UniProtKB/TrEMBL annotation:
Pfam family, one: NAD_binding_8
Protein name: Uncharacterized protein isoform X1
Taxonomic lineage of the native organism: Eukaryota, Viridiplantae, Streptophyta, Embryophyta, Tracheophyta
Gene3D superfamilies: 3.90.660.10, FAD/NAD(P)-binding domain (3.50.50.60)
InterPro entries: FAD/NAD-bd_sf (IPR036188)
Gene: LOC110798357
Length: 464
């Protein structure tokens, strides 16, 4: 695809406007959309951002694509501040590591996260009181293959935040046949769950502000800065911003942002949907082999099961808190708005996944004892099915970047490495003074390729 030619002057910082007749073209051979070459017009930088009425916005898939590909391109030419600040939207592993490494380079940042109970995104842990149930309901464990990540993990181990998961993990076939996996590569877990690990990552920082729960609903360029807001409430202005989340919320945010190249890459992402079922039982499950975690094979509704109580040593003598994950196919078949799951859907998914547990364990239908507690959650944007293979994406003209596991693959390690790479790239760009923006563009034109992995993600070094 040809990159649009931008004509700059010192009096113009943003935005560049593309023709109203811009077309979306589909290439059947590559199954990709692309944009024909355009000749943008110049818009004076002092023009205030136009605030459109939310009632006029439509964010259906076709609407988002149309808005994404016909929007103006923001071009900043104003000098970078002597003490630049970065706004990071998303407090998962990638966003947290980006903030942490920006501080190491002397750059302030603010992390905006939607978490009601804590940071972490898909590093979620649910604590249920007063029963004292504990469930890791997203990332289950992680492995290490990169030396940079290994150094980070060793630091967490020294602080008592991470430990090896020494329990038996393997594969279970429908009918109950279990095969343990090798102990190598080492499997790691958060000592008290994944969310406490996420909450601790920025606990000792002095140049990072965390704002949560916060849903950034608009990003607008004005006077050489990005202005962020939450439903009309100003949330600060920044020299650069990082989008550290994905899915429909990110697509909506970018649809009228003035970042068509960033938005285009985000729209190419294909994500799976996964149901998580949390269930507490009074008695141990009738296992043929005493495992703590298992990749489930041959069961339509189930891809993973793990005993949180054993893994986290959170209870002795009961209750027994299990996390069950669906297959991606089951998630797709039963997908609903994750913010408002109908009761009938929640009940059906719970029933079918518990039946899947019976099939996996080789139990007769209806013989599994009823759990004392259940809760289902749909991860509507769970894991990437494709990736551009870039450690991060950065639009230097719009001073905006993207980081996340999906840029390299679906693992915590890749999320961390992406955040670290994003921080390094932004720091280098700031150091340059922004005088040669084209030299700092990365990932804007990368083609996507499909990736392989388990329904619950990739674990570098682990073959399942």
């Amino acid at each position: 695809m040809s990159t649009p030619t931008h004509f700059l002057s010192p009096f113009i910082s943003q935005p560049l406007k593309t023709p109203k007749t811009l077309a979306l073209i589909f290439n059947p051979k590559s199954s990709q959309f692309y944009i024909p070459q355009i000749n943008p017009k110049l818009i004076h930088s002092e023009t205030k951002p136009i605030r459109r009425s939310p009632r006029k916005r439509s964010f259906g898939r076709r609407s988002v694509i149309k808005k994404t590909l016909s929007q103006e391109q923001v071009v900043f030419t104003a000098p970078i501040s002597d003490q630049p600040e970065v706004g990071i939207i998303g407090g998962g592993m990638a966003g947290l590591m980006c903030a942490l490494d920006l501080e190491k380079k002397g750059i302030r940042s603010t992390v905006f996260d939607t978490g009601m109970h804590g940071l972490g995104g898909r590093m979620g842990t649910r604590f249920v009181e007063p029963q004292r149930y504990v469930f890791d309901h997203a990332a289950q464990f992680f492995t290490v293959s990169d030396l940079r990540y290994a150094e980070l993990v060793n630091g967490w181990i020294e602080k008592g935040l991470v430990q090896q998961w020494k329990g038996i993990v393997g594969e279970i076939e429908a009918g109950g046949q279990f095969s343990p996996l090798p102990d190598s590569p080492t499997r790691y877990i958060g000592v008290n769950g994944m969310r406490p690990l996420a909450d601790s990552i920025l606990s000792e920082t002095k140049m990072v502000e965390v704002v949560r729960p916060c849903w950034i609903s608009a990003i607008e360029p004005f006077n050489g800065m990005w202005h962020l807001s939450e439903n009309g409430k100003p949330r600060g202005k920044f020299d650069a911003i990082v989008i550290a989340h994905n899915g429909k919320c990110a697509n909506r945010l970018l649809a009228t942002s003035g970042l068509p190249l960033i938005a285009k890459q985000m729209k190419r992402l294909d994500l799976s949907s996964i149901w998580a079922l949390l269930a507490a039982f009074e008695d141990p499950l009738p296992l043929t082999f005493p495992f703590e975690g298992a990749f489930v094979k041959g069961v339509d509704a189930l891809s993973w099961m793990a005993n949180n109580s054993a893994k986290l040593s959170s209870t002795q003598g009961g209750p027994h808190c299990w996390t069950f994950f669906s297959t991606a196919a089951f998630g797709k078949q039963n997908k609903v708005p994750q913010e408002n799951i109908p009761n009938v859907t929640a009940e059906r998914v719970t029933t079918q996944m518990l039946e899947g547990v019976e099939i996996a364990l080789g139990l007769s239908k209806g013989s599994l004892k009823k759990p004392t507690y259940t809760r289902v959650q749909l991860w509507g944007a769970a894991l990437p099915n494709n990736t551009p293979g870039a450690p991060c994406i950065f639009d230097p003209q719009g001073r905006t970047g993207i980081c996340g596991d999906w840029l390299l693959g679906s693992s915590l390690e890749n999320a961390a490495l992406s955040g670290m790479s994003m921080a390094c790239h932004i720091a280098d760009y700031f150091q340059s003074g922004g005088t040669n923006p084209e030299g700092y563009a990365i990932g804007l034109e990368n083609e996507y390729h499909w990736i392989r992995g388990n329904d619950i993600g990739q674990f570098p070094g682990l073959e399942v």
